[in-house]
Amino acid sequence: MRRFLITCVAIMVVIFSAMGVESLIMGDHNSILRQTLTSPVKQIIDGSRINSNQVVVAIDTQIDPYMQRTYFKATIDAIDKTVRGADKFLVLKFLDRDAIASMLVDNEIDFVISESDFYADLAFEDKVKAIAMLWRPQAKSPSYSTASTIVVSSDSTKIYTLTDIATGSYRVAGTAEESFAGFTVAKEPFVQKNLSWQAAFKNIAFTSNRDPLEVLNAVKTGNADVGIVPACFIEVAMIQNKAHLSDFRVINPQPVSDLACQHSTNAYPSLMVSYRNGVDSNYILEMTNALLGIKLPYGATWSMPENTRALYDLMYHLRIGPYNNVTYSAIYRTLSENRTIFITAIFLIVAGFFYNLIISVEVASRTKALKKALAEKDRISKQQEQTNEYISRLERTGIVGQMSSMIAHELKQPLATVSNYSRGLLRRIEKGTADKDTVIRILKEIEYHTERANDIVDHVRSYAKPHEVKREEHDIRDIVAKTVATFEKSGRTTVPVVVEGVQKAPIEADDWELELAILNLLKNSADAFTEVHPAMRDTSEDLIRIRIEDHEDTWWIRVIDNAKHVDEEFTKQFFQKLETTKAHGLGLGLSIVSSLAERHAGRVWAEPNPGRGVIVTIELQKYVPIEEKLKKL
Description:
This is histidine kinase. The chain is α/β, with parallel strands linked by helices. It has helices at 2-26, 32-46, 65-85, 97-105, 116-124, 162-165, 188-192, 197-200, 212-221, 233-239, 281-292, 309-318, 326-336, 341-410, 412-431, 436-458, 476-489, 511-530, 568-571, 589-599, 626-632; strands at residues 54-60, 89-95, 111-114, 128-135, 148-153, 172-174, 204-206, 226-230, 248-250, 272-276, 301-303, 472-475, 497-501, 506-509, 544-551, 554-561, 603-608, 614-621.
């Protein structure tokens, strides 16, 4: 207890000493530490200065114009509608970052739309809190919605790595010096590889109107050797037929697991909407609901905010935002803290203490988060392995069962015939009544039926016949829900699966076999999406639907995808035995589905999906209780 009290007193002394030393050095009483401690009181005093009839939204002017053109109209319209619904006036202010920071201190702004780096800078000073992040459909989550893409001409024979660019011998084109994805993030891979981004970009030129397309054209025409554009811009330009990825080569390409676009850096959050501390909670709730319901171009949406720790790591490595004075403070101390040795010594002690404290807290926090993330990753990996093993076991069991039934049924007759002829010949030989012609005739019959059995083994998969099914009453929706859960846990695809149709669909069936049949169809649909070139896909539209339809005496289970374009001739191959449309397929999957449907007194067929994709339908008889059957009689 005594040690704890001494520690608390020491910390208080250090804090007040730091305030005094900082005030002496700054020459006034507006030190950073003093402002931090007194800002909550100032916010309470200044809270009444907000005009209650206005909702002021500040827009960061450093947001790239093409981002404003793409996403702002729908966003501002939704905000305006929400504000007018509350009998308020929406005031939009396009301001530079210094003006926004100053007006936030004076409580003259309610909400801010900005790039994520500026949000991180404001949030670090506890001036704002996030309510929404821009989520592009190519990103795994809102935290991975933007990055930088460093490109050279596909014909370039001199530039292949970041090390080549870091020599400083090449002309570089960028969107704008203040552009987050168009320049700032591009520095990150150089820092990670201990290369000088200052040398790499010493010959950089920025576009006149901050248009990434000008950067691509400069590289393509040879006016620049290297170009920096925001990630996903090339793919969007391809959709608009303004550029093509084949004209460029991406330097330092990154995996597309987090961001499904060509990019050269780690992925970070993109645009963010935040609110000033002190804004009415009702406004915050209404604004959040309005943003989350917006449909933006190219499949983008506003999403709930996620962790922005990666932003602070980036800003720390680049010495920007809240870390832009890390180097400057040491120089400032060297030049200005020479009044007395005593003041300098105290300042260095205080600075060292806080630096070690912050680093310790950061290391502990990040270590804890890393351990948690690794544990979660291991859990998901084990669950996925178990699910894949379960699916594989289902398939193997289904195939073995089918093959066993086929062989047992088809080989029974020729083997029985061979056995009868063999026993008959043996008896004749034992009795001495077997003449030459009889022996030859019987041996020919044995040879014929042996060859027939051999043909059955060679073509056994085409002779599948139904057998007795263990049937119980089930709800098709329950079987489908279980199958979808198993399929999603397997991690086979990121394409969403949606179940549609009736609320209850009773059936008398073997639920295990129906699960196997539907699982085969889901896997085929997932594989179909992988055959579509990434440049031709809009992942926001990828979808697998399972629709349960009521057709008089039957239920239709329809598995519908919108993967690649197919015609009717293509779908006719689906249920031909030992025929497959896959490069490495065996042709067993759909054959098993067909056989399982027939064993349930049903049928299955395939047809092209209007527009794009395939529809595979399983038709099964409805379950009718015995009481209802008796009533009909």
